[in-house]
């Protein structure tokens, strides 16, 4: 495993390696790595000849300075974990000035309205920040395939639009949500949950599971409303949204066509930690 911190070094290394590695895969992360990230790297290793894992807490995708400041940074442990788990990957862990040069600012993108749904309503400019960092990483690394978790499903759809907009031939691959035994979706933010809140936070997964179980039956609407009510009447949680949306456009809906795919999406805060999760319904 090789760790590089500068763009020049990475570009040089990729040039050398590209002679023998035909298909390059990229797994972008913000670090504080867990099994969810590892599942993406495993998939990338299966599907490509050379995997680059980037670790960079991207300032432009945080609309809230305190959230950015509280985001866990564990580069040394991350590098240890990666070297214990994976052979032959390149880790790119740049400093902000290496990526943003003079000015830490986001470019504006038009993602066909996907950016205005769900997270877009609660995290101002978030997807411009995501688009900005990924455009930069894609340009530096020029991967053939890039791997993203369905955990951040809206982000996955944004990245698919981004590669169309910037017109790069990158295959964007969605990977299944990796969960703790309790059903809680793994997240770097879970570390900040108390043991009690971690247990309570399984309500997100349970609610999505109930909505899925009754989807397509006469109980569907009742189950969905009950799940929302469970959060709204529970003082441990602050619910941002619990919606069912078209899996492609992410437009919320309560009328369903047999030939379309739908997902349920949730964002809720518990103990000052904002969690998101989602599930395919059909
Ligand atoms: P992050 O470090 O949170 O920005 O995540 C980096 C990548 O890992 C993103 O594509 C996430 O969607 C993905 N990811 C994070 N948690 C999970 C999980 N529990 N299961 C699958 N993918 C995940």
First CA to last CA: what distance?
Answer: 40 Å
H/E element order: EHEHEHHEHHHEHEHHHEEE
**Helical percentage:** 25-40%
**Overall pLDDT confidence:** 97
Structural class: alpha/beta
Properties at a glance:
282 residues; single chain; 20% strand; globular; 9 strands
Structural overview:
This protein is an alpha/beta fold and 282 residues long. 40% of the residues lie in helices and 20% in strands. It has eleven helices and nine strands. It has helices at 7-18, 35-47, 65-70, 75-85, 96-100, 119-122, 126-141, 153-165, 195-200, 202-214, 220-232; strands spanning 2-4, 24-29, 50-55, 89-92, 145-149, 171-175, 237-246, 262-270, 273-280. A six-stranded parallel sheet has the order 1-4-3-2-5-6, sandwiched between helices. Strand 5, helix 8 (153-165) and strand 6 form a beta-alpha-beta unit. Helix 7 crosses helix 8 and helix 10 (202-214) runs antiparallel to helix 11 (220-232). It is globular and about 60 Å long. It binds adenosine monophosphate.
Explain the layout of strands and helices.
Blueprint: E1 2-4, H1 7-18, E2 24-29, H2 35-47, E3 50-55, H3 65-70, H4 75-85, E4 89-92, H5 96-100, H6 119-122, H7 126-141, E5 145-149, H8 153-165, E6 171-175, H9 195-200, H10 202-214, H11 220-232, E7 237-246, E8 262-270, E9 273-280
Parallel strand pairs: 1-4, 2-3, 2-5, 3-4, 5-6
Antiparallel strand pairs: 7-8, 8-9
This protein binds adenosine monophosphate.
């Amino acid at each position: 495993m090789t760790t590089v911190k500068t763009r020049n070094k990475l570009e040089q290394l990729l040039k050398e390696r590209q002679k023998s590695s035909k298909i390059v895969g990229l797994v972008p992360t913000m670090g504080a790595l867990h099994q969810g990230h590892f599942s993406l790297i495993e998939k990338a290793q299966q599907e490509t000849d050379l995997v680059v894992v980037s670790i960079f807490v991207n300032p432009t995708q945080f609309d809230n300075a305190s959230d950015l400041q509280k985001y866990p940074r564990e580069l040394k442990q991350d590098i240890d974990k990666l070297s214990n788990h994976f052979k032959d990957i390149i880790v790119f862990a740049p400093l902000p000035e290496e990526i943003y040069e003079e000015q830490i600012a986001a470019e504006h993108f038009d993602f066909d309205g996907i950016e205005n749904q769900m997270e877009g309503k609660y995290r101002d400019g978030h997807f411009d920040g995501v688009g900005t960092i990924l455009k930069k990483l894609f340009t530096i690394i020029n991967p053939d395939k890039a791997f993203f978790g369905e955990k951040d499903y809206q982000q996955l759809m944004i990245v698919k639009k981004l590669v169309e907009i910037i017109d790069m031939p990158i295959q964007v691959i969605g990977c299944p949500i990796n969960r703790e035994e309790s059903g809680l979706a793994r997240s770097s933010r879970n570390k900040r949950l108390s043991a009690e809140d971690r247990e309570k936070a399984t309500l997100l997964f349970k609610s999505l599971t109930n909505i899925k179980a009754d989807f397509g039956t006469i109980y569907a609407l009742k189950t969905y409303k009950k799940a929302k009510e469970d959060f709204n009447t529970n003082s441990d949680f602050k619910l941002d949204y619990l919606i069912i949306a078209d899996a492609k456009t992410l437009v919320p809906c309560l009328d369903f066509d047999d030939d379309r795919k739908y997902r349920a999406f949730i964002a809720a805060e518990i103990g000052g930690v904002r969690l998101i999760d989602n599930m395919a319904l059909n």
